[in-house]
Amino acid sequence: MDIVDKSKRSSMMAGIKNKDTKGELLIRRGLYKLGFRYQLHRKDLPGRPDLVFPKFNSVIFVNGCFWHVHNCHLFKWPSSRPEFWKEKINSNKIRDEVNLEKLTKLGWKVLVIWECALKGKTRRNLDEVIHTAANWIQYDSQNAEIEGKK
Fold first, then answer.
1. Which one of 27, 45, 114, 125 has the fewest beta carbons within 10 angstroms of its own beta carbon?
2. For residues 12 and 119, what is the distance between their CA atoms, to the nearest angstrom?
3. Are the C-beta atoms of residues 69 and 89 closer than 8 Å to each other?
4. Cβ–Cβ contacts within 10 Å for residue 3, how many?
5. Per-residue pLDDT tens for 19-72?
6. Burial 38-72 (b: 16+ CB within 10 A, else e)
7. How distant is the alpha carbon of residue 13 from its chain centre?
8. How far apart are CA 110 and CA 113, in angstroms?
């Protein structure tokens, strides 16, 4: 049973953004201060990465742990309408995997920064996340993830 009425829940869900989230803005500002220039949400790339660094053939996704099924304290299966949510959230996960594979085949390297690295009880120091991402952009050749502390 939901604790809010249907119209309130609809209004709450409509307010959830998929671009320019708080976490994404934190990463953008931090990398910009370090001198990185990027493109946003390029529609010609699979998954419309949050940040695109053409000079380094790198893309960054800042993923919400709930919407992208991350195994951390921020993810919990909803108790109401479980069939709907399992289908919805699992389809997001499958789409992410397909987009990662497509980007890799196109020669892009992919970094996923999970929400739990930026908030909650497992969050990391923001400067640590920014500098880890910066080092990855410049020097790493593999796909990678930054997640909350274990």
1. 125
2. 20
3. yes
4. 7
5. 678 999 999 999 999 999 999 999 999 999 999 999 999 999 999 999 999 999
6. beeebeebbbbbbbbbeebebbbbbbbbbbbbbeb
7. 18
8. 10
Q: Supply φ then ψ for residue 80, to 5 degrees.
A: -90, 140
Q: What is the 3-state secondary structure (H, E, C) of the chain?
A: CCCCCHHHHHHHHHCCCCCCCHHHHHHHHHHHHCCCCCEECCCCCCCCCCEEEHHHCEEEEEECCCCCCCCCCCCCCCCCCHHHHHHHHHHHHHHHHHHHHHHHHCCCEEEEEEHHHCCCCCCCCHHHHHHHHHHHHHHCCCCEEECCCC
Structure tokens that stand for 50 in this block: 């949050």
What would the two tokens of residue 3 be?
């604790």
Note the pTM of the prediction, 2 decimals. 0.87
Only one residue has tokens 């934190």, namely 26
Which residue do the tokens 């946003």 mark? Answer: 40
